[in-house]
Structure formats: structure tokens, C-alpha cells
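Render TSPO protein in 3D.
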Amino acid sequence: QGRMWAYTVGFTVLPHVGGFLGWFMNRKEIPVWYEKLKKPSWCPSQKMFPIAWTVLYTGMGYASYLIWNDLGGCNSKAVVPLGLYGAQLTLNWAWPHFFFGAHNLKMALIDILCLDALAIGTVCSWYPINKVAALLLVPYLGWLAMATCLSIRLWKDNPEQKPGKSE
């Protein structure tokens, strides 16, 4: 019983680790670079992002525990559902480095489009295993949809400056 509690906490906390590291490594770029980007009127307030990601990462992490538990741990049945989850989580964690760290809006957009496909694949692979786990990812899919639209707008509205080219 005590070991299962540790697994529950571990799976639930795991997504927060990469999210925190992404924020920590890029936090100085928010006031310096991000605030100067042209953003659409529907862009969420900066105060919304940590709240949203805390809720989303907690739901994702707990859902991944449910899948892992229902499949009996890491075994051949878990390769696809947990592999998709791990792949999308990796792209999720990579996005801040492309966007804030490298200021590469195009790579950030490519990343989030691939992330969308993997997140949808994750939900589809989880639904037959545990409907609650799949449904816990629905708010994440909604947030990703908004974030993808925002990434498209930021990429289109903030053309990258080419060396030696003036506008």
C-alpha cells in the first residue's frame, strides 16, 4: 500500500519537473523578450500560465499513473500508451526551449503541432484502458488547442528578423 502511494505521487509529480525546469531556465526571457512580442487580444494573461500548467500537469501525471497501474506496470502492453505519453511530454518540455530560449517561433510551432498529434494519440490509446485517465487529458487537449492557435498567431505576427534585412 505504501509503495503504491509513492508511485501515485511520483507519476503525478513527474510532469511538473520538466515544466518547472523549462520555466526556470527561460524565466528571464519573459519580461525581456516575450512581453515585446505582438500578441492577439485573446492571449491569456501571464498570471494564467502557472495556474493552468499546475492543474494540467497534475491531471496528466495522475492519469499516467492510472494507465500504468491498470496495465500492471511497465510491460509490453504499456509500450504504446506510455510511449505516446512520454513522447508528448518530451515535446511539451521542449517547447519553452525553442520558444523562449532560442526565440525560434517556427520550431516552437513545429514542436506544438507534433505535440498535438501525440497528445491526441495518447488520449485515443488510453480511452480503451481507462476512460477516466483519458478524460483527465481533455482539458490538456483544450489548452493545447488554444496554445497552438496562439503559436500560429505569434509566428505569423512576429516575423523573424534576418541578419542584414531591415523592414
